């Protein structure tokens, strides 16, 4: 028996050389039919997804035990027509189907023929996946398009308006007026650039293409640099406090991405919190922990699970931003092999705490 074929009969294992794969260990649902559509095998994931037990399905025709329907209510088995059509047909692409009264599933089908090319169908292998993940992804993409359109409209309208005005009426404005308009255009162009950078980061995180270029990084020094930049931009110096506890081990990290993590968390503390933003860096058992605390209202317990999702903008009155910053922070921390969480700070407010592993990378 070949490893890429699911077994016939009521067996629940596939032979892969000297090893066996228990179909109940597969993450996706699996249903195996004989050539006539009688159910031979149902794995545990398929039971969970369909709500039909193995005992109730085995030995019955798929149309009776698992009567899948498409979005228009048509019988899936009739549309599959495994013995009709071209004799070289071997699969049906993934499509959304449902059982009566059950959530939508993504169903793909393979027609096993013997001989493989042009032979009769001897077995039908069906895989099932939960469609809710795809629905969430589609909603996320729709939200992303809506957010991008909204965030780009304002600065681009400003850039277009001021540049058109200057070009048409240059001589009518004083140097001071021209300077104000050009500074506004420059600031709005920076805003567009930041949005594009965030979108690229989101894309790399979601696709797994985020690259980490490691070097020795002094985390307290990077934190002080971020604070100095905020002070230079007009924030009061007494709004920040950096604290180092104990002797820190050597950390090999991506310096630019550590700067981005710290900058986003400090920005979040300033935007949504109040009082002093405190950065605490300390050694822990397997790495270095960094806590960024504010003195605002904190994050309500029922919102903790949403904080690192895309487009989360906090529960305070001062929101703003794209809602992508904390999602990006989580992705950057995890790309380093670290973890991040949010909790209530010791003095009230929110505390974002991330832990990064220590040790030099293996350069091979």
List the helices and strands and how they pair.
Blueprint: E1 13-16, E2 19-22, E3 29-34, E4 39-42, H1 44-50, H2 54-57, H3 62-65, H4 76-80, E5 91-97, E6 105-113, E7 121-130, H5 132-169, H6 175-207, E8 215-216, H7 219-232, E9 240-244, E10 252-253, H8 255-272, E11 277-284, E12 287-293, H9 325-335, E13 339-344, E14 350-357
Parallel strand pairs: 9-11
Antiparallel strand pairs: 1-2, 3-4, 3-7, 5-6, 6-7, 8-10, 11-12, 12-14, 13-14
Helix pairs in contact: 5-6, 6-9, 7-8, 8-9
Description:
By secondary structure, this protein is of the alpha+beta class. 37% of the residues lie in helices and 23% in strands. Strand 5 (91-97) and strand 6 (105-113) form a beta hairpin. The radius of gyration is 29 Å and the shape is elongated. The model is unreliable at 1-11 (pLDDT under 50).
């Amino acid at each position: 028996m070949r490893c890429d074929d699911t077994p016939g009969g009521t067996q629940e294992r596939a032979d892969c050389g000297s090893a066996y794969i228990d179909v109940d260990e597969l993450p996706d649902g699996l249903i195996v039919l004989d050539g006539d559509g009688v159910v031979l095998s149902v794995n545990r994931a398929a039971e969970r997804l369909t709500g039909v037990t193995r005992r109730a399905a085995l030995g019955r025709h798929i149309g009776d035990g698992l009567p899948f329907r498409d979005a228009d209510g048509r019988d899936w088995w009739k549309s599959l027509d495994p013995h009709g059509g071209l004799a070289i047909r071997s699969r049906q692409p993934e499509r959304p189907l449902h059982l009566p009264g059950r959530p939508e599933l993504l169903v793909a089908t393979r027609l096993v023929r013997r001989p493989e090319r042009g032979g009769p169908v001897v077995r039908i292998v069906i895989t099932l996946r939960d469609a809710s993940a795809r629905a969430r992804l589609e909603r996320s993409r729709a939200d992303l398009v809506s957010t991008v359109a909204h965030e780009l409209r304002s600065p681009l309208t400003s850039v277009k308006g001021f540049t058109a005005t200057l070009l048409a009426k240059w001589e009518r404005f004083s140097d001071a007026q021209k300077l104000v308009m050009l500074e506004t255009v420059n600031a709005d162009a920076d805003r567009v650039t930041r949005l594009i950078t965030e979108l690229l980061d989101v894309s790399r995180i979601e696709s797994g293409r985020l690259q980490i270029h490691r070097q020795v990084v002094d985390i307290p020094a990077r934190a002080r640099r971020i604070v100095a930049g905020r002070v230079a931009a007009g924030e009061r110096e007494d709004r920040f406090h950096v604290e180092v506890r104990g002797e820190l081990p050597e950390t090999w990290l991506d310096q630019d991405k550590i700067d981005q993590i710290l900058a986003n968390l400090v920005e979040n503390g300033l935007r949504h919190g109040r009082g002093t933003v405190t950065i605490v860096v300390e050694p822990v058992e397997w790495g270095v922990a960094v806590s960024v605390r504010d003195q605002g209202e904190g994050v309500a317990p029922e919102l903790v699970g949403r904080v690192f999702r895309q487009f989360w903008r906090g529960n305070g009155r001062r929101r703003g931003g794209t809602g992508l910053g904390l999602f990006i922070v989580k992705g950057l921390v995890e790309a380093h092999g670290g973890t991040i969480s949010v909790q209530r700070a010791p003095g009230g407010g929110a505390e974002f705490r991330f832990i990064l592993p220590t040790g030099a990378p293996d350069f091979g």
